[in-house]
């Protein structure tokens, strides 16, 4: 029987596409990478549209693969999601981002709000809020300096999402809907969900000066957010024209290459925190 199974495995691997094999390798590398500490975070500033001052930052995970070099999150996040590795990886991201935020506060910099991306598998863990609460206690970070970013797709199961978001609110962290406008979401749910902010997806922001319909979409999302008393962030702001347009739409916050690409912690500190203290 063992022999037969061996033959079966062989036939299977022979038939496997290169892509599938690549995926398996990358997945096992991901697991090892997590153990070996190959991941780190970069931070991108969130700026006030009105004053141009810094309001906070978003933590973005990076993987420095020992052989391949940097692997973009667009490649390894879906894989981590598929394999379930996103749960320990996401836990590490949460802890590292909060630890860093607290370390900056301890250095005497003005406290800022750290945005952290959640993946759907993480979001579905019923004990996530409890774990985050415990982690914040241990680190000593005030929950008001944490914002969790979820996507519209996570609110499809609306009762479960509602319960989870309520637990987050009780904890005292902020909640934003990332990539807003690209996914499924009912305005009715939106009205009832305990959220604080919409982040308008980059795809709309990048075309506001060229596509009339994108300008209309941004403008509509912004005005809807105002009516629902939600804050608005525009992502992917790359030039002054886009920023000027966002100002006319009374967007609160902007993020994008116009201000800075995501940068490692020490660089972020030099560029955005040091001068504020002096
Ligand atoms: P996202 O959450 O929508 O993050 C914004 C992405 O847009 C980042 O890509 C950022 O580098 C990029 N970006 C920011 N400003 C600009 C701009 O002005 N122009 C352009 N062209 N791009 C800009 P990144 O870092 O490659 O991340 C891609 C996605 O991977 C993120 O999209 C997020 O969905 C996911 N991701 C990143 N870090 C984490 C994490 O820690 N956990 C989870 N679950 N997902 C993460
Ligand atoms: Ca995000
Ligand atoms: Ca986004
Ligand atoms: Ca996006």
Automatic annotation (TrEMBL):
Entry superkingdom: Bacteria
Record-annotated EAL domain positions: 23-276
Record's protein name: EAL domain-containing protein
Native species: Saccharibacillus brassicae
Lineage per the UniProt record: Bacteria, Bacillati, Bacillota, Bacilli, Bacillales
């Amino acid at each position: 029987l063992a022999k037969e199974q061996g033959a079966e495995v062989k036939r299977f691997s022979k038939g496997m596409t290169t892509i599938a094999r690549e995926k398996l390798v990358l997945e096992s590398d991901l697991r090892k990478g997590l153990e070996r500490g190959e991941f780190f975070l970069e931070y991108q500033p969130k700026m006030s549209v009105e004053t141009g001052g810094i309001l906070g930052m978003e933590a973005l995970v990076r993987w420095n693969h020992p052989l391949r070099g940097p692997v973009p999150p667009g490649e390894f996040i879906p894989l981590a999601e598929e394999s379930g590795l996103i749960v320990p990886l996401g836990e590490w991201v949460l802890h590292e981002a909060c630890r860093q935020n607290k370390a900056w506060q301890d250095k005497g910099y003005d406290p800022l709000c750290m945005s952290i991306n959640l993946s759907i598998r993480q979001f579905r863990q019923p004990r996530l809020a409890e774990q985050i609460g415990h982690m914040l206690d241990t680190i000593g970070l005030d929950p008001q300096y944490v914002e969790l970013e979820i996507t519209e797709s996570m609110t499809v199961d609306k009762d479960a999402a509602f319960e989870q978001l309520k637990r987050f609110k009780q904890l005292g962290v902020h909640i934003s809907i990332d990539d807003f406008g690209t996914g499924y979401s009912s305005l009715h749910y939106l009205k009832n969900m305990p959220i604080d902010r919409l982040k308008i997806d980059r795809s709309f922001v990048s075309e506001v000066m060229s596509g009339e319909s994108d300008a209309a979409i941004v403008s509509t999302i912004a005005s809807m957010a105002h009516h629902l008393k939600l804050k608005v962030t525009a992502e992917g702001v790359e030039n002054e024209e886009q920023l000027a347009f966002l100002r006319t739409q009374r967007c609160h916050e902007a993020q994008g290459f116009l201000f800075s690409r995501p940068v490692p912690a020490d660089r972020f500190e030099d560029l955005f925190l040091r001068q504020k203290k002096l």
